Amino acid sequence: MSHLKNKLKYLVDVSLKRKICTKWFVIANVILALVIAAIMNIDSVIKVFGGDFNEKTTVYILDETSYSYDVVAKEINVIDKSLNEEETYDIKKYDKSYKDLKKLIEKEDNAIGIKITESNNTINATVASESYIDVIKYQVIVQALNSSKTAIAMSKSNIDEDVLNQIYAPIDIERIILDETKKSESENMDTIMSTVFPVFILPFFMLTIFLVQMIGAEVNDEKTTRGMEIIISNVSPKVHFASKVIAGNIFVIFQGLLLIGYMALGLFIRHIVGAGSITNVISTAGIGDIGSILSTEFMSKLIYIIPLTLVLMLLTFISYALLAGILASMTTNAEDFGQLQTPIMLILLLGYYLALMAGMFKGAIFIRVLSYFPLISAILSPSLLVLGQIGIIDVLASIIIAIVTNYLLIHYGLKIYKVGILNYSSKDLWKKMFKAIKEK
Predict the structure, then answer these.
(1) Mean pLDDT across 360-380
(2) Neighbouring C-beta atoms of residue 406, cutoff 10 Å
(3) CA 321, 324, 327, 330: dihedral to nearest 10 degrees?
């Protein structure tokens, strides 16, 4: 037994050294560290190159009516406040000509000019900018101008000022959800799933692809160089199969930990440069008050979501490693394996997109059933759990199904592996595989 353990350990060590102890692995991870740190400090990077996430848009208002400026400025601020925590517009009154205003706008990158005129006893507006205006910013201005037009028209109708103030005062809204199990913060959880959550599931998606391709490439390399015959003459196919699965999973876990370390480095750099919380970048990117959502409802769920997700991910890594090893043993070259791994990639991609669109399938039975599917449950189940579409029991069921799937892959896959690794002909290969499965 100890002799088998030594052989297994030796094969695992050799496999890991072929992956980790290379200059390309070091170069790739240095680049990854720099890219991740830069992305997590994107606001500081933009500032270095002359930009600023928190830079206000300057709005110059040329009021040729002499009575519209205050109303328009107030409406822009009211609408802006309803969308953002901090003011994003710096509104200034412009007293020179429209020709001078256009010259001023041409010199400033982040400025908008509004000329307000009167025609047929109603106001009209011209909006000018040097380049394109962000869609959201333009809609804010258009909405503010429309509201201002109505307000000015009503004021001209000799309506009492107190009545006007009551009409345009922001309404106080108390949000009540009759279902006591629901919380108002969760109404914005769909936004998190479509914007923030992909950042967390993308590394798992990429690591799984690396795992499948890595095991397939190793097995095919050993077969094409005839090194497989030498290896199998010294160790059993069972030990060889186990070494590929163990080495592959150790590698992706190690790479995953490195990615977490790079994220920690990015957060440390944010702390050093004083860039503030990472949620500030998310909020200023136009996703609203997502920072408060992340710090309350979402964070409270992480206590049980993280452990369950990690267990599912580990079991799924094992499933893909087993499947990749089995398929690779059946092929005679890398091209054949590339064709066989296409269905695996499609299944993985399906799980990724289903997780992104999970909020669209509220109450759908089929999405709940798919969350039990072992090859995509690690991606889909956590997203559905966050949205409240499934419970902890469902995730535990997914874990049990993944364990059973791995057992079946080991039990029947090993029989295929024993036949496939020493087979160098694709003739009647599937017949040989099915025959191997039927053998006791």
Answers:
(1) 84
(2) 20
(3) -80
SS3 track for the chain: CHHHHHHHHHHHHHHHHHHHCCHHHHHHHHHHHHHHHHHHCHHHHHHHCCCCCCCCEEEEEEECCCCCHHHHHHHHHHHHHHHCCCCCEEEEEECCCHHHHHHHHHHCCCEEEEEEEEECCEEEEEEEECCCCCHHHHHHHHHHHHHHHHHHHHHHCCCCHHHHHHHHCCCCCCCCCCCCCCCHHHHHHHHHHHHCHHHHHHHHHHHHHHHHHHHHHHHHHHHHCCHHHHHHCCCCHHHHHHHHHHHHHHHHHHHHHHHHHHHHHHHHHHHHHCCCCHHHHHHHHHHCCHHHHHHHHHHHHHHHHHHHHHHHHHHHHHHHHHHHHHHHHHCCCHHHHHHHCHHHHHHHHHHHHHHHCHHHHCCCHHHHHHCCCCCCHHHHHHHHHHHCCCCHHHHHHHHHHHHHHHHHHHHHHHHHHHHHCCCCCCCCHHHHHHHHHHCC
* Whether residue 404 has pLDDT greater than 90: yes
- How crowded is residue 428: how many other Cβ atoms within 10 Å of its Cβ? 10
Q: What value does the mean pLDDT of the chain take?
A: 79
Residue-wise pLDDT tens digits, 187-197 = 555 555 555 56
Residue where the block lists tokens 């990639």: 345
Tell which residue, 320, 201, 352, 351, has the closest CA to residue 249.
Answer: 320
State the average pLDDT over residues 111-134: 86
Question: What does pTM read for this prediction?
Answer: 0.71
The model's pLDDT over 228-259, given as tens digits with 9 standing for 90+, comes to: 777 777 888 888 888 889 999 999 999 999 99
CA distance 378 to 437: 28
* Amino acid letter, residue 333: N
Summarize pLDDT for 17-56 with one digit per residue, the tens. Answer: 888 888 888 998 999 899 888 887 777 776 666 655 567 8
Taking the alpha carbons at both ends of the chain, their separation in whole angstroms is: 23
pLDDT digit string, tens, across residues 273-297: 765 555 555 544 444 444 444 555 5
